[in-house]
Structures are given as structure tokens and as C-alpha cells.
Write a structure and sequence with these properties.
Helix content: 25-40%
Number of helices: 3
CATH topology: Alpha-D-Glucose-1,6-Bisphosphate, Chain A, domain 4
CATH superfamily: START domain
Strand content: 25-35%
Order of helices and strands: EHHEEEEEEH
Number of strands: 7
Structural class: alpha+beta
Number of domains: 1
Strand order of the largest sheet: 1-7-6-5-4-3-2
CATH architecture: 2-Layer Sandwich
Radius of gyration: 23 Å
Distance between the termini: 88 Å
Shape: elongated
Largest sheet: 7 strands, antiparallel
């Protein structure tokens, strides 16, 4: 059995990481574009063909979803079948995200497995934290505690010679 196991500790709460994992628009920003498959509830098409270690788009079916801690998929890609699980566990500093893919049918050669693992690692340690920081920044109210805004312009006194 061939498997890929990547973990990353993130300084963000589990619910924010869950949002980045399950929102299609956000997932497209840090990993790959995703489309629901017409007529099939829980089936997705992941456009991974251009990513290192992936040969084709992945036809995925959600097999388990426990918000905000686990999403599991059964994946078909280029004649191979695998199980992919993304687990989110709270930590004192934020949370730990574990991504584990286990090949059930077919094979990857060593180079393909290494490139695929590196693809996951780059997404989880580079692009995902950037998206999470962006999400966190959007949630910060920089004007909290300030008095309400006004449409009146402040009046200032002109100092100096009068015309």
C-alpha cells in the first residue's frame, strides 16, 4: 500500500481552516479548482492535471464529512483509486491539518509519488497559510472603538496672511 502523509501546524482556528478546505472559491486559490459533478450529490471534479504528481483531473466522492474536523474522499485519477482524508485538530496555537492519501488500486512510481507529496506540502505550507492570513485580515475590524463615520468635512482654520 502506497501512501502520502503531510501535516502542517497552522496559527489559525480550525473553523477558518475548514472554511478554506471546503469553500470551492478558496480551495481554488490555494490548491486547485473544483466543480460539483452534475446530478451526483457529493461528487466533485478536481482540476489537478497541471499539478506536479497528478496525471489527470480527479473524480472525487465525499465519503465522510464531520465539520470542522474531517473530510474524506474516494478518488479516481488516471486508472488509479485512492482515499484522501483531510483532518483538522485544534492545538494550543491554532490547529494541525493532516492530509493523507492512500492508494488502493493502481500505482505511482517513486518520482510521481514524491512530486505529488511535494505538491501537497507546497500547498499546505505556502499557499494555504497565505489564504488563511487573508481570511483573518478580512475578519479584523480596524475601526472598532472609533466613533461613527461622518459625511461632514472637518473645518480647519487657515493660518497666515489673508488675501
Amino acid at each position: 500500500m502506497i501512501e502520502i502523509d503531510v501535516q502542517v501546524d497552522l496559527f489559525h482556528p480550525a473553523d477558518r481552516v475548514w472554511h478554506a478546505l471546503t469553500d470551492r472559491a478558496l480551495l481554488a486559490r490555494w490548491f486547485t479548482e473544483v466543480e460539483p459533478m452534475a446530478g451526483s450529490r457529493g461528487r466533485l471534479l478536481l482540476f489537478t492535471a497541471g499539478l506536479p504528481g497528478f496525471d489527470a483531473a480527479v473524480d472525487a466522492e465525499v465519503t465522510d464529512r464531520r465539520e470542522p474536523e474531517l473530510i474524506a474522499l474516494r478518488c479516481l485519477e488516471g486508472g488509479r483509486r485512492s482515499r484522501l482524508a483531510c483532518a483538522v485538530a485544534p492545538t494550543a496555537e491554532g490547529c494541525r491539518l493532516s492530509v493523507r492519501e492512500v492508494l488502493e488500486h493502481g500505482s505511482w512510481n517513486d518520482e510521481q509519488r514524491e512530486r505529488r507529496e511535494e505538491s501537497y506540502r507546497q500547498a499546505l505550507t505556502g499557499r494555504l497559510p497565505a489564504i488563511l492570513d487573508w481570511l483573518a485580515f478580512q475578519q479584523v475590524d480596524l475601526r472598532r472603538g472609533e466613533p461613527g463615520m461622518t459625511t461632514e468635512m472637518p473645518v480647519t482654520e487657515v493660518v497666515g496672511d489673508e488675501p
